[in-house]
Write a structure and sequence with these properties.
Blueprint lengths: L3 H8 L9 E3 L10 E2 L1 H4 L9 H7 L4 E3 L3 H18 L3 E5 L2 E4 L8 H12 L5 E3 L3 H10 L5 E3 L5 H5 L12 H9 L5 H5 L3 H8 L1 H11 L15 E12 L2 H21 L2 E12 L4 E12 L2 H15 L6 E13 L14 H16 L24
Helix pairs in contact: 4-5, 10-11, 12-13
């Protein structure tokens, strides 16, 4: 989908069509969630602080986010995809792979139906592998269609810059450029052993295979959320550790509830901290046993926070993430575990009360301490 959140918001704001606009909370501390292509043409990007976006484009239109609307339109779009093929692999709220083997005339029909039934534009890339199809969809944005026949794959792929390859971030790109590699073709015509020497066995072999368009992964219809998280950007930078740990408790409680609702448990718990200078640090810990208990999650992230040794540095954003997700009850009990965790029982009871009387009808007493109201930023990843 093209600038999905922004496109959804513009549906209800026709006067914004053709103008630079961003989706963000209208606050000095907010960041851009999505930007129209008119705003992107002026240098605005997702994750950019709103104050920076306004410096670039003083009259940029700010649209408040409505996450339930995005979920509604996502369901509509995915249902359209399923009408064309049962082999749909949803990657995120606004992106999916479709296996349409043998079909030759449906690509325009998919775009036309999405536009007709939702009013939203989308871009389609067609290729013989998932990797190249993804590149083609990006190249065709906005609102385009690009088909790469299998015999033309390398002709399309090789002139692209090295950061077109999945897994090539800023640091990897620097390593490759220092070796004189600037395009995908340069990587393809380097000895695989040289890439392994520079990047390690897994990364070197991975990039070498992609540079020759080797991507055997099929479209998978089984999708499990990779992670569940919750983040909060403070209205003012925070130094008080007690306030940070109180915010983490709220987030851990939310993540635990989302895990239980999805009947999942997490093996890995992560902490994200963004300082006032926008430096971001993440830390994680893999647990001996998966959990969906908010208090256990909170204990881990507080330990991770303590290990950071903030040293008086002020914090702009803090967040909790649960990863390594497994089905609840899918692991054997520990040899020494002879009773159910009382906190798990308590939190399950809270879930049941929340379903009947609303999500905030019962909360731990420790939530009575003053913490900022949180804006919604928790999403499955």
């Amino acid at each position: 989908m093209d600038a999905f959140f922004a496109s959804v918001e513009v549906l209800d704001r026709p006067e914004v069509v053709g103008k630079p606009a961003v989706v963000a909370h209208d606050s000095p501390r907010s960041v851009v969630t999505s930007a129209t292509y008119e705003a992107r043409a002026l240098g605005i990007r997702s994750a950019m602080p709103l104050v920076h976006a306004r410096r670039l484009v003083p009259d940029v239109i700010v649209l408040e986010p409505h996450f339930e609307k995005y979920r509604h339109y996502s369901r509509m779009v995915m249902q359209i995809f399923h009408d064309f093929t049962p082999l749909v692999e949803q990657l995120s709220i606004d992106e999916a792979f479709l296996d349409v083997s043998g079909a030759t005339k449906i690509f325009g029909s998919i775009r036309a139906r999405v536009k007709a039934e939702t009013g939203l534009p989308c871009s389609v890339g067609v290729a013989s592998t998932k990797f190249v199809a993804k590149l083609a969809s990006t190249k065709s944005k906005p609102n385009g269609l690009l088909v790469i026949p299998e015999e033309d794959t390398l002709e399309f792929l090789h002139p692209l810059p090295i950061d077109a390859l999945w897994g090539v971030g800023k640091k990897t790109a620097e390593i490759l450029r220092k070796r004189g590699l600037h395009t995908v073709a340069d990587v393809a015509h380097s000895p695989e052993s040289s890439l392994i020497s520079a990047l390690g066995q897994a990364a070197g072999s991975h990039l070498y295979a992609l540079s020759w368009a080797r991507d055997p992964r099929p479209v998978s219809t089984e999708r499990v959320d990779k992670s569940i998280g919750k983040e909060h950007t403070f209205t003012e930078d925070v130094i008080d550790v007690e306030k940070l740990t109180a915010t983490l408790l709220f987030q851990a409680d939310h993540v635990g509830a989302q895990l239980r609702k999805a009947q999942l448990e997490a093996r890995t718990i992560g902490l994200k901290v963004t300082y006032s200078d926008f430096e971001s640090i993440t830390r994680s810990r893999t647990l001996p046993e998966a959990t969906s208990v908010g208090r256990e999650i909170h204990k881990v992230v507080c330990e991770l926070l303590d290990e950071l040794r903030l040293g008086g540095r002020s914090v702009r954003l803090i967040g909790v993430r649960a990863a390594g997700l497994v089905q609840a009850g899918g692991q054997q009990l520990s040899l020494w575990e002879d009773e159910v965790d009382p906190w798990k029982d308590a939190e399950i009871a809270m879930d049941q009360v929340g379903e009947k009387f609303g999500p905030d009808s019962v909360r731990p007493a420790s939530f009575l301490r003053k913490i900022e109201p949180t804006r919604e930023s928790g999403t499955p990843g």
